[in-house]
Amino acid sequence: MKYPENEQSLRLNRIREAMSQDNLDVIIVYGGVWKIEAIHYVANLRVQGRDACVVIPASGEPTLFLSSEWDLARARMESWIKKVEVVPDHMLAAAGEEAAKCGKSIGVVGSEHMPHIYYDDLKRAVIDKTLTNSTMLLNKVALIKTPWEIEIIRKCSTLADAGFIAEIETLHEGACEYEIIAEIEYAMRKAGADDNFQMIGCGIDLPSMNAASENKLRLDDMVLSEISPYIGCASYTTQLCKTVKFGVATDLEKDKYKLLCEALAYALNNLKPGSKAKDLCLWQNEIIGAAGYDKYCWPPYMRSRGHNFGLGTIELSADNELVLEPNMVMVVHPNQYIPEIGYYACGDTIIITENGYERLSKVPATHLVEVAPRV
Q1: CATH of region 147-371
Q2: Exposed/middle/buried for residue 315 (C-beta within 10 Å: 0-12, 13-18, 19+)
Q3: CA atoms within 13 A on the CB side of 260
Q4: What is the pTM of this model?
Q5: What is the mean pLDDT of each run of 10 residues along the chain (375 residues)?
Q6: Which CATH number is 7-141 given?
Q7: Do the domains spanning 7-141 and 147-371 agree at the CATH topology level?
């Protein structure tokens, strides 16, 4: 991914401002191939070897440490960090020694994901220093997206729309869930997605969505889907939550889905900078609860009314006091179990703006989509 020239300094300045507030002289950012978001954010690198870490001092140039030689050539091409070292064994010891030169107060991002032997190496390398878990520091910095990040997220939304169109076009009686997913993913990867987190469900009176299975689509089934393409890493993901009727929907099915669309619209129309994350949850619950489903707005029937992905995570839960600010991004979804008809999926990704919000998807969120069987 090619970044604008000012992206590195913009991010580093934000990180260093947060370090100053936490009285940190240096931070060590750790990530592995199974959890790449932090390294991607600070180094513009999709780790494909075992793992990597970055030492960011309060002033001066960062250092990127790689555990795998095969990441080196790509790091030199892609990463904005010029000082790169490969340390196959005891990488955290080398990073600790570098960090120890920068001061006594060291923050560690991602220590919860380190093997204990790595953390032991790090502690021995900074034995006379103070270590602080600083994972939340980077998460808070990433809450507010940069203009370039917003651009990538907009692209992800067009990919999600393309995936939904592919879903509609591929539905036919006897199609397996995994076949539907394959067509969705093919359309999005062809258009530029690096990956896709996908959930699906086909059937009647469904309790939830799950990973794709061999379950086959039948006439009058509902098709539930969460389509979540990303570019680069999971921090740049949008999600489109949709329910499709394969056949002709009943009035009851249409009315209950319309209820979820109304809950979504009500929550978004009340939204403005300064609202809290919990408000978006409670506003959705207000509409759904008033229709007689208050019991079903809470666990075990519901967990969250929205979220986002990767760094800068926001959960739209009833107890989240986070104040929403412009350029925060999240999916808002009144996904809901309704006893008369089962589980429905309904949701959109939005950007918080100076005056309210911007909905990213071009797919309408006003009614239940019906797809006629192929003749």
Answers
A1: 3.90.230.10
A2: middle
A3: 29
A4: 0.93
A5: 83 97 98 92 92 97 96 92 95 97 96 93 94 96 96 97 97 97 97 95 94 96 97 95 98 98 98 96 98 94 91 94 97 96 96 96 95 86
A6: 3.40.350.10
A7: no
